[in-house]
Amino acid sequence: MNDDDLSRLLQQHASRHPAHERLRAAVRTQMTLQAAAQQARPAAPAWRDRLAWLARIHPALAGAGGLALGAALTLAATLGLPRLATDGTLPDELVSAHVRALQVGPLYEVASGDRHQVKPWFQGRLDYAPTVLDEPLREQGFALLGGRVQALQGRPTAVLAYQLRLHKIDLYAWPAERGAAPERLQRRGFNLVRWSDGAMQYWAVSDVDGPELERFAAAWRAAAAR
Amino acid sequence: MTDARRFEATVLPLLDAAHNLARWLLRDAASAEDAVQEAALRAFRYYGSLRAGEDAKPWFLGIVRNACYSALARERGRADVTLLDEDGWDQLEGQTPGSTPDPLAALGARREQGLVDAALRALSPPMREVIVLRELEGLDYRDIARVAGIPIGTVMSRLSRARAQLKRQLSLAGLP
Q: What's the order of all strands across the beta sheet hosting A167-175?
């Protein structure tokens, strides 16, 4: 056997192991999360940088006015913390909450595809009873994975986790006063669809395509209206 | 195009080659997938280290290869195995992935595949990786040297020793 014979044998008969579609999807999801995490990192206010820079180039200041500078830096650090979320920052907070659940978990604290398991789990954890839908959504390809309670704007909020193929969809739900037609937004590559049925407002967050997420919202609204 | 999009366009088409290499270096499918995912994450972080116009395949396969060796090191409970030379590997031969050929696989209709796979599995990882990169992935000596982090001369001597071992084992098995 010469080198060419060996090459032919290897190339014809050795097993090849192409990447599974599952691996491709996992890598893609990971990229989305990484890109989102990079953008989520809050930029330090310029004047905080300047104070730190001053401390570096004037070590004397650190000796003489050390206390004052320390206090100023502490104050600066405090002021630099993310502001309390107002309505305008809610979509960003939702995306951050969704990413956090995907990255560090838990995606659900009660794992079940059965609403009779998930809905009672919220009892005593919230001051409202969220609607939980399973079968009508499963028929449309959205499988209920479970539910969790996550703090949102300082309030415990119901979250339902669904899965469409390899994508996760989080549905945040809390009481609302007015009804509102679905509206789609985009933040950091994630899609959000929000609507309200007059009693509850809903925010769906996911990395699925916008139209797919709108289909989820439509399926939910149709089933809830039944 | 954003960095993330460019990265996807660069790395996603290389996942087949990456997974093939990882699967040949590691024991099972799950650790191979983990290693590729870990490599993709590292590659994303160090995407800046890929120079414009540079071929991404050896760059990414090098990261995959290192992720595989880290996984092997973790499996063996060692801090670092990259210092082990081939002799060191030979002493660990009994622990190399699948070094016991599955006799049933060789009996069936896919006799050649079973024999060729078993012969490849019997190589030490440093020899197996140069063969996989050369024969299955079609990399040239220079690119193999980049992936494995060794001089071109070492690539050539490893390839020739690996080929000699494969020929011996396959001839004994009655191939071709």
A: A110-111, A143-152, A155-164, A167-175, A200-206, A190-197, A179-187
